[in-house]
Write a structure and sequence with these properties.
The structure holds 2 protein chains of 2 kinds. Chain A folds into 2 domains: about 70 residues; about 180 residues, no CATH class. Helix content of chain A is about 80%, strand content about 0%. Chain A is globular. In chain A, helix 4 packs across helix 5, helix 7 runs antiparallel to helix 8 and helix 8 runs antiparallel to helix 9. By secondary structure, chain B is of the alpha+beta class. Chain B has 3 domains: about 325 residues, 6 Propeller (Neuraminidase); about 70 residues, no CATH class; about 30 residues. In chain B, about 30% of the residues lie in helices and about 30% in strands. In chain B, helix 5 runs antiparallel to helix 6 and helix 6 packs antiparallel against helix 7. The longest helix of chain B is centred in the C-terminal third of the chain and has 31 residues. Chain B starts with a helix and ends in a 7-residue tail after the last helix. The chains are: A mainly alpha, B alpha+beta. At the A-B interface, helix 1 of A face helix 1 and helix 9 of B.
Amino acid sequence: MSKTSRFKTFRTMIGRFKKEEEYGKNLTPIDSDYYASSAFGAFRAAFKDKWSYMWYTVSHPMDGYYWIRHRSRGSVPLAIFMVVLFSFSFTANRLLASFVVNELDPRSVDSYYELLAVLFFFVLLCTSNWSVTCLMSGEGRFKDIIIAIGYATLPITIVLNVATVVSQVVADNEVALYFMLLVLGISYGAIMMLIGIMQVHNYTLGKTLITLFLTVLALLIIIFLIVLLFNMLSMVYHFFRSIYTELLFRT
Amino acid sequence: MKYHRSLSLILATLIAAFSFAGAMPVHAGESGLPYATYNYDFREYIRFTPAAYIPDGIIRGERFTYGGESIGRFVTPQDISRSPFGDLYIADTGNNRIIVLDNTLENCINIIDSFVNEGVVDTFRQPHGVCVSQRGWIYIADSGNNRIVVLDQDGDLVKIVANPRSESLDENFVFIPLKVTVDYADRIYCTAQFMLEGLMVFDDSGEFSSFFGTINVTITTWEMFWVRISTREARQNQRLFIPTEFTGIDIDPGGFVYASNIDNTGEQGVRRLNPRGEDVMKKGENGNVGGDLWTLGLGELAGPSQFTDVVYRVNGIYSALDRRRGRIFTYDHEGNILYIFGGLGTQEGTFNLPVSIEYMNDKLMVLDAARAEIVTFRTTEYGRLINEAVSLRFDGNEAQAVSLWERVIELNEHNELANTGLGKAYLTAGDNEMAAKYLKLGMNREYYSIAFRRYRNEILREHANTGLTVAATLVVAFLVYKRIRKKRKAKDDDDGGFSVE
């Protein structure tokens, strides 16, 4: 099958959607005949598609996130993998960035706890956003929110690693370059996340900002509830434990 | 192995963190000294170092005779002071007298217990402080008599400073001078009991001129908030925001007054006051000249250091005496801690109630009021090297200090001052690689950055030819490859590869 005919099939597949031109330009559609010959081949095809679509989302967030919601082009495992990668890059940056820009005590950096913290915060953010947008007629599903936030960490991950490498050669007054890189990457990630949430829920920008504010509130409430729950549980535990010890001593 | 070592390091720091007061004897036992010598590194961890000063005997009153008679033991002495002529003056407070020892500290050369005041023999009552001016006059803070007595070299009365009156003083203010010092212009600086406005300054005629170096009270926004919302009744029961008192004073040859004070935040226990009374102290890397950085824990040994006296030594080096844990903190002119040693206890070299510190003949002397004795310390090689190297740097002869710093690193490779000193010397000498190495070990980011940039540019310049040649070759190779590929592809298409619809 030639290149052009592949493209044609693809066009008819999504032909009824408005944004087809932009969407189709940079993508290689799945050639099921070619790839589906084995289970691994199918997996590889799916992965390749999701992977290239993630990069498409990074470069075209408006468009990319729209189709993630409406065509399920995103992948939850990939989003979680990206968050894990972000966590490791974050730790690596703290640990390996050169002495010129980094005065952290390496003994205070622990990749395991940082991974746990990042994953916990990620789940918390997704949950609180989901619980807010559910009530505010957001169209996104939970998995869309996970993908929206997970993919948005990709530019930050890249920039963190680039900055770690760059830090090895900068010195003196070039340090500003390192921090500029970081600021640019993090801002791009933040903008991506904003657009992601906006597109996934089909919100306007104003409404997105309002929901984000409410998301932070919900996040605090969830943390409060978790602390409360653990406190209560430990009280119950200690109550039964004291009964147990009391019985033990009485008999 | 590496993991193991880092684990034990963490464990060691943890143990030190939780029982820092109790952990000292463990290390002290190794050196045979009753105290540990340590310093704080860049990350504010405790680093134990070789001893900088070791005990060098105890001076008690019983040892001395004057005029054929034993002078007897001191009773609650409160102050020692070195005269510009090398003698040591001791305010033997409980015996109402001043004792003068000669430079060797072997002989008592004078006892001042009375003077002639308007034809009548006058005596002291509880003299708390003593000081000798550059012209040899003796200034005695006669606390029990609410006055400062000034005597000349022969013990004749020059003047009496008493009963200061001023608009800024309370009507019924009772003047109880404690520590006293005098500058080159015969201005008297003294600390007084219950005097929170700062040091009191008297001009050469003995008139009260002003307060000096007033410590401002700092109130945090949070405290301000609580004061604002509390009721009048509640406010009356809250603690007052009052400045801290000065506890000890000394003066350097340039006329700058070094004054110790008790800072409950543990940030600044020593002030360096310029002639206008402003604090011009340099506080070093961590912005702290308040003694111990680790002040956690429970019990009476916890809490920030309480500096009770300070002595200006030479070349910008000064030592402050902490009465809470009996430690001596020595700083250089930039506010870096050089070494910390000393402790409370009953062995030789420890204190019970340290009140005053003095520096003489390269020895540190600490007056213990409760045991009524002077504990002396002499330098070890380690302490002497640091003192000399820091002095050279103070004079701007950093290059000469290299051999000293090298020896210091042999004795203690964690010494960041030594590493920085070596690094700076290498930087001046143009050896940027070594400079970067040592400046990193010395945790000096600013200079490391400079050294690293020079080193990097050096390498770039050195390999510029090779690098550019390789880059050019690669570009050419890529272009050629691309062209060949294009040709081959065109040929393939001609041969009927994938057909285009």
